[in-house]
Design goal:
Elements: E1 5-16, E2 19-30, E3 34-39, H1 45-53, E4 60-65, E5 68-69, H2 75-80, E6 83-86, H3 98-102, H4 115-135, H5 153-167, E7 171-175, H6 183-198, E8 202-206, H7 210-216, E9 219-224, E10 227-233, H8 239-247
Parallel strand pairs: 3-8, 3-9, 6-7, 7-8
Antiparallel strand pairs: 1-2, 1-4, 4-5, 9-10
Helix pairs in contact: 5-6
The structure holds adenosine-5'-triphosphate (ATP).
The site of adenosine-5'-triphosphate has 12 residues, from strand 2 and helix 1.
GO molecular function, one term: ATP hydrolysis activity
Pfam families: ABC_tran
Keywords: ATP-binding, Nucleotide-binding
């Protein structure tokens, strides 16, 4: 069955001084897509993610969200629209617990007022964070009591992704979610991504690990020198072909997004 389009990028260009980081990139993201965004260093992946995250404005081109032209910047606007980003630094405060990190910068923050009210708000935030982690079957001891700096890298990544999924009800952007992790921790993160997929979340994930991409993504988008070199269903391609697009051994496709074709 054809999936509805969530977000379209149309002819997006972005330059930094004389550097053309993105050159006429168009991309259709369907609801429920898990897109693996790949490409060599400097190919334009981060710039594309930052456009979607509202951290960069396009120099030209249009962003259409659920059928309406939309400005995504600044990042708070993208977040208001339900787009969350988990960057590699995870943006967690080490001296806060996982529960406190869930609500960083959000309206429910403790704020001012009588001590009792602040205590009640803190309890309510803790309950919500625990519920959010439970629903995703993330079993981390000390969600309310242990600071995240005392957690493993894998646990921190799980907390950051769970927080992103909790607030990002439309689109979750993941920047190399397994880059710094060992085999077991990577597996846990990939399992979490699969559970988010099952819940119908839409994800765009930058990765250098094609094996990980194949475990979770239904689509592969290859960037090369600021252009979209290929846009493929993972079920209709293989690693050899994707590598050929990454390196330029294979000429860029005349791409159209494979929305509506069979998903993996
Ligand atoms: N803020 C910036 N100022 C100047 N040039 C930039 C800026 N951000 C990106 N670029 C340039 O734009 C091009 C694309 O960079 P981008 O970071 O998007 O690539 P990437 O595919 O994410 O690479 P990597 O895998 O190395 O992170 C590169 O030439 C980079 O140097």
């Amino acid at each position: 069955m054809a999936q509805a389009t969530l977000l379209s990028l149309r002819d997006i260009c972005r330059s930094f001084g004389g550097i053309q980081a993105l050159d006429n990139v168009s991309l259709e993201i369907a609801k429920g897509d898990i897109i693996g965004l790949v490409g060599d260093n400097g190919a334009g992946k981060s710039t594309l993610i930052k456009i979607l995250a509202g951290a960069h404005d396009p120099t030209s081109g249009d962003v259409i969200l659920e059928g309406r032209p939309q400005k995504l910047s600044p990042p708070a606007e993208a977040q208001r629209l339900g787009i969350e980003t988990v960057y590699q630094d995870l943006s967690l405060i080490g001296t806060f617990t996982a529960a406190e990190n869930f609500f960083l910068g959000r309206e429910l923050a403790l704020g001012r007022g009588p001590a009792l009210l602040r205590l009640i708000r803190r309890k309510s935030m803790g309950d919500t964070a625990v519920k959010g982690l439970d629903e995703l079957h993330i079993d981390i001891p000390g969600v309310r009591s242990k600071t995240v700096e005392r957690m493993s890298g894998g646990q921190r990544q799980l907390v950051a992704i769970a927080r992103g999924a909790f607030w990002g009800h439309k689109l979750l952007l993941l920047d190399e979610p397994t880059a710094a992790l060992g085999v077991r921790e990577s597996r846990e993160v990939l399992e979490l991504i699969k559970r988010l997929t099952a819940k119908g979340l839409t994800i765009v994930m930058v990765t250098h690990n094609l094996d990980h991409l194949w475990q979770v993504c239904n689509r592969v988008v290859v960037m090369r020198r600021g252009r979209k070199a290929a846009d493929l269903l993972s079920s209709g391609t293989n690693m050899e072909e994707v590598v050929a697009y990454i390196t330029g051994a294979k000429a860029p496709m005349q791409t159209r997004s494979p929305i509506g074709e069979a998903s993996a």
